[in-house]
Input
Amino acid sequence: MPSLSEMLRKALSKFTSASSVDKRVVEELIRDLQRALLMADVNVELVKKLSDNIRERAFLERAPPGISRKDHVLKVVYEELVKLLGEGPARIEIKKKPYVIMMVGIQGTGKTTSIAKIANYLKKMGYRVGVVCADTYRPGAYEQLKQLLNGRDITVFYLEDVDAVKIAREGVKYFESNGFDVILIDTAGRHKSQEALMEEMRMLQEGIRPDEVMLIIDATIGQMAGAHAKAFHQVAPVGSIVLTKMDTSARGGGALSAVAETGAKIKFIGTGEKLDDVELFNPKGYVGRLLGLGDIEGLLERIRIAEIEVSEEKAREFLRGEFTLEDFVKQLREVRKMGPLSKLLSKLPIPSMPELPSDALREAEEKIEKWSAIIQSMTVEERSDPSILNASRVRRIARGAGVSEKDVKDLIRQYKLMKKLMKAAKRAPQRLFPKLYKSG
Ligand SMILES: Nc1nc2c(ncn2[C@@H]2O[C@H](COP(=O)(O)OP(=O)(O)OP(=O)(O)O)[C@@H](O)[C@H]2O)c(=O)[nH]1
Ligand SMILES: [Mg+2]
Output
């Protein structure tokens, strides 16, 4: 059976190779995505909602100028999948003291390794972390933990006993009475049978009532992840997920099923066998990898810039006012918030401004920081009337701002240029700039 990632990629490459994008092609893409997600056991309701959102946005949203409908649809698909995983990077929150986290997962998924990684991570954040080894099945489980955490000043609790619930209880009691902030409980993955394992998890859940059950999913196990998540979730409601082995070639699509099955968020990913090989989960990176959209960041950036709407009103505001040197830099800052300066000016109905070369605009954008510093080292008098600047003043200002004299002169030149542009726009005959006069 092809993996979720393979199916999603196939759907997208079929879509991108279509000669044109019409309703039929988008519907086909949606159908392919649905099939992929349903095969991955993603909840039918979720798939329906995702399809509806994609359909609506693909047809109703206008692609920004310069962006093809195809790229726009890709972006919509990407964003809707990210939404499914919960927008921003998830964080671990230690909501009370002590905060008890129980790790569960099928054998070999990386529970013990992840516990050591997360314990170390939380320790670095300044928490007092204790680990309880409540795995009575895996030979050497305790030694494994101790070895992983060797020299990290993190206590590992263990009892020679066959009763996992008893060990967990005693461990929690021990750390609690010693004022620890976080308690992580390692549990068994191998057992007599799957039923016996689930029964033990149920007893642990009831016996210790952890504040958070963290499910460990192995990226290499594919779609089994959904079934595993479901089984654990029934006995110990899963609150968060760790996706391990993301350093392998596996895309970890199974995690999407686990998320859909439990409603829990992925909080960490494991990227290797060592203690520091752990990262906070980032939904955007994950979906990008899942879809194989190598340059998704590049595409999104292009779209972001294209989407910046510069209203005529804003552009006109820019041209109003007294426009001192200080205003100049202030306005440039404003403009930068709105988007590229050249884009703003292109909104203005000015057919040709030979005095203002386009690279001057780019230069202006790049130099805002420098120019602010220059203005800071000017006197009030100089700011309001730059024409008084002589060579010695320029030298003093340059030294004060830590820039070259040329930089100071450049600023003045740019300012004069801009002022000229504004005068031209203000004086322009109505016939030439009808839009400017229409409402103002
Ligand atoms: N490459 C890679 N290997 C990992 C990662 N996490 C764990 N492993 C390896 O996977 C194997 C199993 O990890 P464990 O932490 O022992 O798994 P477990 O879930 O505790 O296993 P049981 O206790 O037997 O249920 C070990 O060889 C780990 O080094 C990871 O993120 N990347
Ligand atoms: Mg283990």
In short: The CA atoms of residues 29 and 288 lie 17 Å apart. The beta strands are 99-104, 129-134, 155-157, 182-187, 212-218, 240-244, 265-270, 278-280. The radius of gyration is 30 Å.
